[in-house]
Structure formats: structure tokens, C-alpha cells
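Support request from a user on the community tier.

User writes: "When I paste my C-alpha cells into the form, the page sometimes reloads and wipes my input. The last time it worked, I copied everything first. Here is what I submitted, just in case something in the input itself triggers the reload:"
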């Protein structure tokens, strides 16, 4: 536009970017953090220990926020108004009215615009275990958490070239995967993908590789995000390493290439984690997670095809579980911990004798008494107790040592009171206490 205006002598009105000063502040702050990192050898060595090299530190402009007020003094001396510092989350006022830096004692990761020209916010990782692990910039005129994509400014061209994007949970994952040549890697400010973010990615590719941590929260995050991805025309695949390692660790081990060549589609991922689940309760939880989230997939979306493919599998597996455990409504099963305390004691050969020393009326709940009778009368396999036992086995809840001990102590206490009132022999009580000492 400037070229055409000059050629034809057209005067253009100067329009100042209303966000220019915000960008200027954040750029200055980023430089300050970067220089701070260079001075702090301990933090620098921590980054090296995570596998991050100097090239990536420079590329991503990683820095360190100390616990001093110097940055605020410098910004004010430069003429930046304190209101603007509040507005973009560089400063805040504490309960005493003192003005303090928003980020302290944190490794700082700047978040860039999609074109990479400007910084719009920060995410800081704590080096102090007493603080929350990550702290993000507040929403501001230039930063919206549910719109930001970390590393996207570096990833765009690589996404187009490779025809897929890798989505990871952590910033370190993004940095290390970049270091190993996978520049088409991005992360979000949390594990929830918004419609805005999905639509932005869709402009560059429709193929998504989700590479989250292998723990339960990572698994839930994958399932939770499927409707958003599918409804926006994205086709998700899941990277699931055999090793219990995070994405950055897999990259450092050299196992990334093989993993990317063998991603799981939605159906195969479901079958795999279902088979790996160690008990029926976990298996049903996986089925219910998939079912509840995939019902949010729109009929007109390409993702509905995946839903139609997976639904019969979910139905068949749930049917098998219900038949196996003689259950009509699995989701409505609930017991109090006393039932599981009895079951845990029964399953422990060293403690089982306790159940033959106490009496039914020292128990509290109706279900606990019912289970107690079944054990004492050797009728666990009788048809009349089959549903009760099936429900308990379905949940397979293991209580901690402390919880079991607490219940045994309560039973003993009630036995003591009862025996003293009835002037009965304390022989039974002594037997219980002797067994309990084995705990």
C-alpha cells in the first residue's frame, strides 16, 4: 500500500496501532527476562538439564523473572504508565496497596502473535515447589488465553510442509521437539482446545497428532478434546509411546520418528487403553468418558463417521461387562468405605480372622452388614448375594492402610463398649486386638 501511495502521490493518514505501546512494553520486559536468565547460572543449568540448548533459548526467547522490582522501576522510568502495566499483567497491587511484579522466580516463556512479530503475553514456570507450576498472563486487550497457541509462529510453515501438527501439553515438549526437527509442534495454555484454536489450525492442516502425557489426566484431556477437533473438521490421531515418558523425554531418547509413523486413530486408541485398564471400574470409566464426550460431535461434521464406527464397539463392551457382573445399571453403584473395608480385610489372609471375631451389630451400614453375613455364613457364591459381590468386584476399590486401620479400630471400640455393658468375657476382644497388631 505504501508503495502504491508513493507512486501516485496519494497521502495516507497515519494510523497508530492502539496496541503498539503494549507490544513495546512486553518486548522490553522479554529482553529484561532474557538478560536475567544469562546472569542466573542455576536456572540456566536447569534448562540445560532438561535438554534445552542455547539455540532454542534464543529462538524462543526464554528468560527468567527474579523477585526484585527492578523491571517495574525501569518501565516507569521509560515513561510507560502504571495503568498499562496493570492492564497487560506485568504489575499488580497487593492487599497492602504495594505495586509488585506479576511474575517472580519463574522461567519465562513469551507468547507470540501468529506472525511472530509481537509478544502478547507470558507463561511463567515456577522454580519454587510451593507455588503453582505455571502462571499465565491475564486476559488483556492483546492476549486471550483460549486463543493463544504456543510455538505457532514457528510451526506454521512446517505444519503446511508436513501436512500435520503435533499438539503437546508442555512448553518444554514444544521446545525439545523443535530442537529435534519437529517444528510443527505446538501447545496450548492448558489442555483444553477452544473452537478458535481449532479453526486456526484448520487453516493449515486437518491432521492432528495429540501427544499428551500417558497418565489418567492426559488420557481424559485427549477424550475431552475430541468433539472440538472433530466438529471443526480436524482428524485426530494419538501418539502413545510404550515407555512411561513425557514427549520431551521420548524425543531425547530418539524414539519420536518411530512413534510418529505409527499413530493410533480414535477407535484403535480406545481399544488399546480399554485393554490396558486394570479393573472393570476403569474400563467402564473409559467407556463412559468416550460416550459422554462423543455425543457432542455434530451430525453434519466429518467426525460423526468416527462416532458411528466407535458406538457399536462401546455398546458391545458395556453389554459384556453388565452380563459378566449381572448388573442392570452400572453407573448407579455406590457403597460407603465400610463395605470396602470389610472386603479388603476379607481379601487379606492375615486379617480375615477379624471378621470371625467381631459381631454384626458393631458395623454401621446396611450393605456392610449384608456383606458381613455373606462372609460369615460362607455364602459369597450364593445367588442371593451375587449382585452385591458383583458390584463390589466391579468397583474393586482398594483402601489405604490408614483407612482400614481406622475401621478396625472403630469395630474394636464398639465391641469393647458392648462387652463391658454385657459383662461378657473379653477373650473375643483380645483375639481381635492380637490380629490387629499384625497391621
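"...and here is what came back when it finally went through:"
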Amino acid at each position: 500500500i505504501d508503495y502504491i501511495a508513493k507512486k501516485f502521490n496519494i497521502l495516507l493518514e497515519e494510523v497508530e496501532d492502539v496496541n503498539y505501546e503494549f507490544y513495546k512494553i512486553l518486548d522490553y520486559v522479554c529482553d529484561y527476562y532474557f538478560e536475567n536468565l544469562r546472569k542466573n547460572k542455576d536456572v540456566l543449568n536447569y534448562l540445560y538439564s532438561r535438554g534445552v540448548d542455547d539455540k532454542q533459548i534464543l529462538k524462543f526467547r526464554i528468560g527468567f523473572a527474579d523477585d526484585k522490582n527492578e523491571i517495574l522501576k525501569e518501565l516507569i522510568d521509560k515513561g510507560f504508565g502504571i495503568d498499562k502495566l496493570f492492564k497487560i499483567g506485568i504489575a499488580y497491587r497487593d492487599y497492602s496497596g504495594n505495586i509488585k511484579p506479576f511474575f517472580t522466580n519463574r522461567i519465562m516463556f513469551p507468547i507470540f502473535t501468529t506472525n511472530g512479530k509481537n509478544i502478547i503475553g507470558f507463561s511463567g514456570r515456577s522454580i519454587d515447589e510451593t507455588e503453582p507450576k505455571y502462571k499465565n498472563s491475564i486476559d488483556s486487550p492483546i492476549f486471550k488465553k483460549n486463543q493463544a497457541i504456543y510455538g505457532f509462529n514457528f510451526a506454521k510453515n512446517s505444519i503446511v510442509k508436513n501436512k500435520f501438527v503435533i499438539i503437546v501439553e508442555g512448553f518444554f515438549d514444544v521446545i525439545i521437539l523443535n530442537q529435534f526437527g519437529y517444528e510443527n509442534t505446538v501447545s496450548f495454555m492448558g489442555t483444553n482446545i477452544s473452537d478458535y484454536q481449532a479453526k486456526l489450525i484448520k487453516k493449515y492442516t486437518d491432521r492432528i497428532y495429540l501427544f499428551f502425557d500417558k497418565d489418567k489426566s492426559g488420557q481424559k484431556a485427549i477424550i475431552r478434546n475430541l468433539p472440538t477437533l472433530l466438529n471443526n473438521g480436524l482428524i485426530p490421531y494419538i501418539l502413545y509411546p510404550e515407555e512411561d515418558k513425557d514427549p520431551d523425554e521420548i524425543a531425547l531418547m530418539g524414539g519420536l520418528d518411530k512413534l510418529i509413523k505409527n499413530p493410533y486413530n480414535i477407535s484403535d486408541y480406545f481399544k488399546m487403553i480399554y485393554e490396558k485398564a486394570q479393573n472393570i471400574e476403569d474400563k467402564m470409566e473409559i467407556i463412559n468418558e468416550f460416550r459422554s464426550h462423543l455425543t457432542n460431535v455434530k451430525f453434519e461434521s466429518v467426525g460423526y463417521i468416527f462416532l458411528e464406527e466407535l458406538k457399536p464397539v462401546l455398546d458391545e463392551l458395556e453389554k459384556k461387562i453388565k452380563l459378566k457382573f449381572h448388573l442392570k445399571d452400572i453407573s448407579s453403584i455406590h457403597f460407603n468405605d465400610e463395605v470396602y473395608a470389610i472386603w479388603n480385610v476379607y481379601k487379606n489372609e492375615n486379617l480375615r480372622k477379624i471378621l470371625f471375631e467381631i459381631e454384626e451389630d458393631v458395623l454401621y451400614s446396611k450393605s456392610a452388614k449384608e456383606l458381613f453375613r455373606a462372609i460369615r455364613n460362607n455364602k459369597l457364591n450364593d445367588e442371593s448375594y451375587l449382585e452385591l459381590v458383583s458390584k463390589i468386584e466391579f468397583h474393586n476399590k482398594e483402601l489405604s492402610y490408614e483407612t482400614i486401620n481406622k475401621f478396625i479400630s472403630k469395630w474394636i471400640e464398639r465391641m469393647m463398649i458392648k462387652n463391658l455393658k454385657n459383662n461378657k468375657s473379653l477373650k473375643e476382644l483380645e483375639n481381635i486386638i492380637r490380629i490387629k497388631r499384625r497391621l
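Agent notes: The reload is a front-end session timeout and is unrelated to the input. The first strand starts at residue 63 and ends at 65. Residues 20-136 form a domain with the DNA primase DNAg catalytic core, N-terminal domain fold (CATH 3.90.980.10). Escalated to web team.
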